Amino acid sequence: MFAIGKITAPIALLLLLSGCWDRVELNDLSLITAIAFDKPQQNNSVEVTAQIIIPKVKGGGDGGTGGGGGGQAKQTVTRTASGSDIADAISKLQMVIPRKIFWGQCKVFIFGEEIAREGIREHMDFLLRHPQPRERGYVFVSRGRGADVLELFPPIERSSSEVIRELAQLGIGLKVTLEQLSIRLKGESGAQALPLVHILPKSKSSKPFETIAYLSGTAVFKDGKMIGELSSRETRGVLWVRNEIDEYTVTYENDPAKGKVSIHPLHAKVKLVPRIEDGTWKMDIKVRTAGDLVQNGTPLNPMDPQVLKKMEEGMKKDIQARIRDALKLLQRDLNADILDFANAYHRKYPKIWAEAKDEWETKFPEIEATVDVEARINRPGMVNSPGGISQETGTEK
Amino acid sequence: MKPEKGTISGLQMALMLYPAVIATAFLTLPTITAQYAGNDLWLTPILSGISGALTLFLAVRLHRLYPGQTVIEYSVKIIGTVPGKIVGFAYFIFLLYLTGVIARQYAEFVKSAIMFKTPLLVILSSILLLAAIAVRGGVELIARAATILTPVFVIPSFVLLLLLPDLNVQHLFPVLEKGWIPVLKGSLAPNAYTSEFFLMTFFLPLLSNPEKGAKWAAVSIAADLFSGLYASLLVLFLLGPDTADKVYPVLTAFRYISLANFFENLEALLVAMWVIGNFLKLSIFLYAATTSLVQTLELKDYRMVVYPLAVWCVLFSLWDYPNLPSLDNHIKYVSPFELLAFFNAIPLLLLLAASARQVFKGSPNLPAKGKNAVE
Amino acid sequence: MNKALVAEVTIAVAFIVWFERKRVKKIPGKERTLFVLLLLSAWIMAFFDLPNTPGLASVFDSLFGPLRPLVEE
């Protein structure tokens, strides 16, 4: 008799502990890879577009597809719905998707430009409060409608969201996760920055919509509303200051002007040192970077240490200029502290900060920033003298 | 009188006590301490050593004065039969109620993090049933379960180190911007949780070598402090000012792990840790509650009451808390006092009374009186 | 009144009685009464709307309530 009891208890527990109410089969889920938020045409507040992976299509097919027009079959599909807030829109979205919406694979969040200008705070609340959206997903702003970005079918990657994510991880532009954005929205600086997504004009041989989205530039926000943008060049300056330079090439005109030189920085270390001297707020931006030569358009031989020194000078000036340009735009024109100077002062001078923080709007543009760059060129690449010129004709000093 | 004949080793006791305290602390404390102390929250686990030391001192001292007895048993000897029994009964009700609250905390987390649709009752009942089965099997069963499960519980927490590239040490600064007071306020809860180590009063009598056991208990407390510090720092470096706003910061940390785009979605690991840890915690608290009842009423066999008490725990876990905010509110503002009262204040008073008794009458025990004769 | 709770407690009590049948017969009267008392009282409690019923937590709330200003941020 007791034996029955001993068997039923573990079985009952096995069923109960794992919560059979929440069982979901994999093919009852619709895997969302990206979500875009836009301003809808009608009266509602927000329009949500989800990009869903179509599970059956795997890698272009075995026999038939082969060469020809470059295509794989469509691997994603998008669905749109609008509502008074995101939660409302999502519930309406579920109405047109036969499988349960699953956020576990959603790593890309795009805010359309229009809705970014209106303000993203209220939408961020959903993304942070709801248990499913992943805090590690990357957030972007799109030129135009975010939904358009999701409707693209990239030739190589599985989905346009994967394209954007990979590009972001490459480090060419800014990359901001949901959590980082959440921290910035609470931050002292009152300003945020998100990478800007554009759609690459499609090449002549591609099918309709067969192109990718790419990152270029930055959208600048104040208190959750987009107020302006930085060009690609200025974004580089920002990346330098934020110590996020990764995959990037510096190209500049060598002085005396004899051709262009390109360096591929491999290492960069940046420190922000705030100083307050006699009531003047200063910020020292110290950059230490080193890279290798990848293109030498001058007839000079980089193996010569003096030539190399001149080239390093040029590199240093170029980086300084970029950073200064970015700073000028941020301090004067936009008055947005996306570089988080505010926190730097807060950490070093907490008492002075406590008094001054309400005046950050006026203080930020007045900060005197000095840019101190130390640039080194380590190696000349695979050739010594300029490629394409013989030893005699070329090399001058 | 021991409710059973089991004996356990000092190490086993340490392995039981560690999850008994840290299982809920790991998950719920960082947000509470962040709400008080902001970026100084990491100081609070260090300060919880105060209660740790005090609790250890009280439990061990009292056990030395009354070897082989638990707090329930020696209360009677210190303050007399009627007051002693009242104290014993109070401990019983309190521990039963605590077990319910712990189960509720566990169930709320599981429900909000991973099992959205499963009814709360199911989650509560299943874990309490499991704990009841363990308690019914005796303390040796729990000890052996802890020997295997506590390491399993601890190891996944190291996975958090994979967050290293995402951590920002700058979040630490400025240190003590608002002074010590918020830190002290914030350390009330960690101290209260650490005082739960007083449960060793139920295990010291079962040890073959109580003095060594005391040393093991100290190890357990130290491990607890260190784990609290580890969790606090990690969460701080990751989330910074956002820490206080998350309901479960450690869950967010686990969700954030991504190594080579491959090791992702690791919150499942946290939930597994959580189930194991809480199973152990609930078993120990239920065991303590059962023992309290059995010793107060001087029963011979404890096993009969285990399942009925488990049912009562389910009732307690639902009682008085209509939703999660009310539970959280209580845990943040009232629980610290409850815990400190029962696990630090009352033992302290008992120790003072026993010492006074010794000073005046030369023996810590009350004079022999029929049934309550000294053993 | 939570029907699921009542149902569950009833089943639990039934199961417990069934499971412990033999032991109940062996133990002395005092413990038997305790056993029955615990089960009976639990069963009766199940009929209340527990989440909204003031209980021990409320007792502690009122007991330690005055200390609350000490611990508010």
UniProtKB/TrEMBL annotation, chain A:
Domain of life per record: Bacteria
Domain Spore germination protein N-terminal: 22-199
Major localisation: membrane
Keywords: Germination, Lipoprotein, Membrane, Palmitate, Signal
UniProt topology in membrane: Lipid-anchor
GO cellular component, one term: membrane
Family in the record: Belongs to the GerABKC lipoprotein family.
NCBIfam families: spore_ger_x_C
Name the UniProt record assigns to this protein: Ger(X)C family spore germination protein
UniProtKB/TrEMBL annotation, chain B:
Keywords: Germination, Membrane, Transmembrane, Transmembrane helix, Transport
Topology in membrane: Multi-pass membrane protein
Signal sequence extent: none
Keyword hit for Ligase: no
Cellular compartment(s): Membrane
InterPro entries noted in UniProt: Spore_GerAB
GO cellular component labels: membrane
Top-level taxonomic group: Bacteria
Tagged with keyword Transmembrane helix: yes
Ranges in coiled-coil conformation: none
Single GO biological process annotation from the record: spore germination
TM annotation in the entry: 12-29, 41-60, 86-107, 113-134, 141-164, 184-204, 216-239, 268-290, 302-319, 339-360
Family from the record: Belongs to the amino acid-polyamine-organocation (APC) superfamily. Spore germination protein (SGP) (TC 2.A.3.9) family.
PANTHER family: SPORE GERMINATION PROTEIN A2
Name of the featured protein: Endospore germination permease
Source organism of the structure: Cohnella thailandensis
UniProtKB/TrEMBL annotation, chain C:
Source taxon at top rank: Bacteria
Record's keyword terms, sorted: Membrane, Transmembrane, Transmembrane helix
TM annotation in the entry: 6-21, 33-50
Listed name of the protein: Uncharacterized protein
